[in-house]
Amino acid sequence: MSDTYERLIVLLDAHKASYRLVDHAPEGQTDKVSALRGHPVAAAAKCMVLIIKIGKKTSRFVLAVVPGDARVNTAKVKSLFNGATYAGFAAADVAERLAGSVAGTVLPFAFHFDPILIADPSIKG
Questions:
Q1: Residues 64 and 47 sit within 8 Å (Cβ to Cβ)
Q2: Quick one: which of 47, 94, 37 has its CA closest to 67?
Q3: Helix, strand, coil proportions of the chain in percent (round to 5)?
Q4: 31-41 pLDDT, tens per residue?
Q5: CB distance 77 to 67 below 8 Å
Q6: Which of 7, 5, 32 is nearest to 21 (CA)?
Q7: Rounded distance, CA 11 to CA 5, Å?
Q8: In which band, very low, low, confident or very high, does the pLDDT at 27 lie, cut at 50, 70 and 90?
Q9: Which of 6, 93, 98, 122 has the greatest count of CB atoms below 10 A from its CB?
Q10: What pTM did the predictor assign?
């Protein structure tokens, strides 16, 4: 289990949240995971860690959450940061460290201080 997964379970339990666990091997493909969980791809949340470069010396990280049937629009994310010169996917090792989980299992929760959580407003809860 990942650090993020364990922390999320503790948080949900502490607040007596109602939830259902569907444990499965790390997959990394939203369509396959949605089939395992028994819901349409559009009902999933796809989570990606991005790097945003602002000028030559500053980098920020973003945990972008979009509907499972959508793609992360890096240009749109880049436009959210004044002076941003680049937006793209973070290196796998950096993404895993910031997400607290292995690639393909990134959750839509940020427990690390560095990534800024950005969720597509079209995601329905």
A1: yes
A2: 47
A3: 30, 25, 45
A4: 888 888 888 99
A5: no
A6: 5
A7: 10
A8: confident
A9: 98
A10: 0.84
> What are 39's two structure tokens?
């819901």
Please give the domain boundaries of the chain with CATH numbers for all domains: 3-119 (3.90.960.10)
Q: Please give the backbone phi and psi of residue 73, each rounded to the nearest 5 degrees, phi first.
A: -90, 95
Amino acid identity, position 81: F
The answer to whether residues 118 and 80 touch, using CB atoms and an 8 Å cutoff, is: yes
- Structure tokens that stand for 43 in this block: 């009902």
Alpha helices in 1-125 (DSSP H): 3-14, 30-37, 74-79, 92-99
Helix (H) or strand (E) holding 96: helix 92-99
Taking only the tens place, the pLDDT of each residue in 71-90 is: 999 999 999 999 999 999 99
35-40 long-range contacts (CB < 8 A, ≥24 apart) are 40/69
And the tokens for 72?
């992360």
Could you tell me the maximum CA-CA distance found in the chain, to the nearest angstrom? 46
Say if residues 94 and 60 touch (Cβ distance below 8 Å): no
